[in-house]
From TrEMBL:
GO terms for cellular component: extracellular space. Pfam families: DUF229. It comes from Potamilus streckersoni. The chain crosses the membrane at residues 41-61. The keyword DNA damage does not apply. Coiled coil: none annotated. This is DUF229 domain-containing protein. Keywords: Membrane, Transmembrane, Transmembrane helix.
Length: 658
């Protein structure tokens, strides 16, 4: 450079100065002008170009996100690794009291050809001189059933009803048996529909889900089931399965329809779900016998603040049994009322649903079957109660395997999110767990051997960021026999849903996978002192945001105040940016109160002692924006009984309680 400069400098001297005061031609003057001004002009041009790029990049970032931190969401996911036995969690973990149901086993059972029989070994409890009746159970709608008239019953007998109630009285006319039974063979004589048969290409799909089941919670509370799944069934254990919505409904809708909950019709809460594009309504599902079962009337995915179904959604439907259970008190020798919440007479409620599932599998053995079972009660309300289900769930999986039901079927065992409420959810580790539900997938051995590429993809994908949209696509691949196409040359990244049988790109981001920023567990945070000025300002903004939501209901809901700021953290601006230029620019924006960035804050409000986690983008004291949804981390119970709008349940503290 130096020599070049000297050269140009000397040529300037030579051309322009050597004949100072003498006449110079126009062409020489022009040459002289060029030499004299090229360097400064170049410098000026470079400055202008750099400034323009700076401005454009700032404008682009500002336009797209309002603030500077945009790329955590678009960055390659760095999956967090949490310890299921983290001391902060373990202080809330203990052995639950066992669930104790009636000691008297049922008097009757339906055998595998649909005949109702007396269990002879139990007669000793009920007496020999019994007079029994049965009542059919008629589903009226998703909220009610009707018991038919009492009809005399003399087992063994085939009853042409799907669900029915059996009542037996002893010689003193005292009711000694009052129980519900179901008969999956009820229409076998007039069966008009024939289902497809499982083949090496046409596989059944069994989904078994538990609410609030994180991967860590599975390891903690279902250790026997987890061991059986990983060691005997050799399931693929997905360590990067992230939730895509706050609670059950927005996580199960993507799983069952491939859609985000916001893509449903705006009035979906006021309409029946019969015509919605749920997987069991798809044309290719017409070959399958289908089952849908959920175990809590009030929490059911399609019924909580929603209309449910007008008709049977699937070939077999569990809900009418639940409704019947609510209308009667079971009698097993004595009226059984103890632990009524978790038992129905002799049987644990979750076991009833498992038995329903098992009978369905038996009824259509070797036929194409799709089953979707969701258990809420055992895992939703109490983080420890799930331990009471470990033996039963493991036994169910063992039974599936040993009875041959998994020979030509895939099994998807999963949760929708982690534990969302209570003490655990307020810990740092608990909040990560909340975003990371369990997902295990079983594939028959012959499929793995026949398609080794598919096995490789699944193994790789257990370490990728995946979501419920991918499970939907996986089921589509199975239903449409596309699972054979495991083209290793195509690595999928930007599709929202990618079948897990195909290669998922290692650099997939939350944004790619349809995981909203607020639930993206892919970045680290740095804790902040809650007394910092910026934290106080952000906390006030969070509170104002909540009160703004409550404003239209200010006649009935209390205005909230901050009792305390429990925790605050920042997602460091240097983290996982897609483009380093943004970091450079971001670091220029410091304000009096603090540094611009994305903050997560945990505040406690009153009245109502609500604990809220809020994510906020902060640029300066006047420029802040809420990111995603606000999550309440403790229960609100009946605090919001006065409002009907479900979006306000977690915020409203009814004024009549103040
Ligand atoms: Zn849930």
């Amino acid at each position: 450079m130096k020599s070049k400069f000297r050269k140009s400098h000397s040529s300037y001297q030579e051309i322009c100065c050597s004949r100072e005061g003498t006449y110079v031609t126009i062409s020489k003057r022009w040459k002289c002008f060029r030499i004299k001004h090229t360097r400064p002009c170049l410098l000026l041009c470079l400055t202008v170009v750099f400034f323009t790029i700076f401005m454009i990049s700032t404008v682009i970032v500002t336009d797209e996100t309002q603030y500077l931190l945009l790329s955590n969401h678009n960055a390659t996911c760095k999956l967090p690794v949490t310890d299921p036995f983290d001391p902060n969690i373990m202080k809330y973990i203990f052995e639950p009291d066992p669930i104790v149901c009636s000691q008297f086993p049922p008097l009757m059972y339906v055998d595998t050809s649909g005949i109702l029989r007396i269990n002879q070994s139990t007669l000793i409890h009920y007496g020999l001189d019994l007079s029994c009746m049965y009542q059919s159970i008629e589903r009226l709608n998703d909220s009610d059933i009707r018991f038919g008239p009492e009809v005399k019953l003399e087992p063994p007998v085939f009853l042409p009803n799907f669900y029915f109630r059996v009542i037996c009285r002893n010689e003193k006319s005292k009711i000694v048996y009052d129980n519900l039974h179901f008969n999956f063979w009820w229409n076998i004589k007039n069966e008009t529909k024939s289902f497809g048969v499982e083949t090496e290409e046409d596989l059944s799909i069994f989904v078994f889900g538990l609410d609030s089941l994180s991967r860590s919670q599975t390891i903690r509370k279902l250790p026997k089931t987890f061991e059986y799944m990983t060691k005997k069934l050799n399931i693929y254990d997905f360590k990067g399965f992230l939730k895509v919505g706050l609670n059950t409904f927005p996580n199960l809708i993507p799983l069952l329809s491939g859609k985000h909950v916001e893509e449903l019709p705006a009035d979906h809460e006021s309409k029946f779900f019969d015509n919605m594009s749920l997987i069991w309504n798809q044309k290719s599902m017409s070959q399958y016998a289908t089952l849908y079962a959920e175990d809590k009337i009030e929490y059911s995915t399609f019924n909580m603040n929603k209309q449910g179904f007008l008709h049977f959604p699937t070939t077999y439907y569990f809900r009418p049994i639940l409704l019947a259970m609510e209308k009667m008190k079971p009698v097993f020798v004595e009226l059984f009322d103890k632990e009524r919440n978790f038992c129905f007479g002799h049987t644990k409620r979750f076991q009833l649903q498992i038995d329903f599932y098992k009978t369905f599998l038996q009824r259509h053995e070797k036929k194409l079957r799709f089953a979707f079972s969701w258990l809420n009660q055992l895992s939703h309300d109490n983080i420890n109660m799930l331990g009471n289900g470990d033996d039963s769930i493991r036994e169910f999986l063992m039974w599936m395997k040993d009875s041959g039901h998994l020979e030509r079927a895939i099994l998807i065992f999963l949760g929708d999110h982690g534990f969302r409420m209570g003490d655990v959810a307020t810990t740092f580790v608990g909040r990560i767990e909340n975003n990371m539900p369990f997902l295990g997938i079983y594939i028959p051995t012959f499929v793995k051997e026949k398609y080794p590429g598919l096995h490789r993809n699944l193994v790789d994908n257990t370490r990728r960021l995946v979501s419920a949209f991918d499970i939907f696509e996986t089921m589509q691949d199975i239903m449409h026999r596309r699972y054979k196409q495991n083209d290793a040359n195509t690595v999928y990244r930007h599709s929202r849903g990618i079948s897990l049988l195909r290669p998922v790109h290692a650099a997939r981001s939350c944004d790619d996978a349809g995981v909203p920023e607020v639930f993206c567990a892919c970045y680290q945070t740095t804790s902040l002192n809650t007394t910092l000025n910026v934290v106080q300002i952000i906390a006030q903004f969070a509170l104002d945001s909540i009160n703004k939501l409550l404003k239209p209901k200010s006649q009935i809901c209390a205005e909230l105040s901050i009792r305390s700021i429990r925790e605050a953290s920042i997602i460091p601006s240097t983290l996982e940016k897609a483009n380093g230029v943004y970091d450079l620019i971001g670091n220029l924006f410091r304000t009096k109160s603090g540094i611009s960035g994305r903050y997560i804050i945990l505040i406690e409000t009153y009245p109502g002692e609500g604990l809220f986690e809020v994510m906020i983008d902060y640029e300066n004291d006047q420029k802040m924006v809420l990111v995603g949804e606000i999550s309440r981390l403790n229960r609100y119970g009946k605090q919001s009984h006065c409002v009907k709008d479900s979006s306000l349940f977690q915020f409203c503290y009814c004024l009549d309680l103040v």
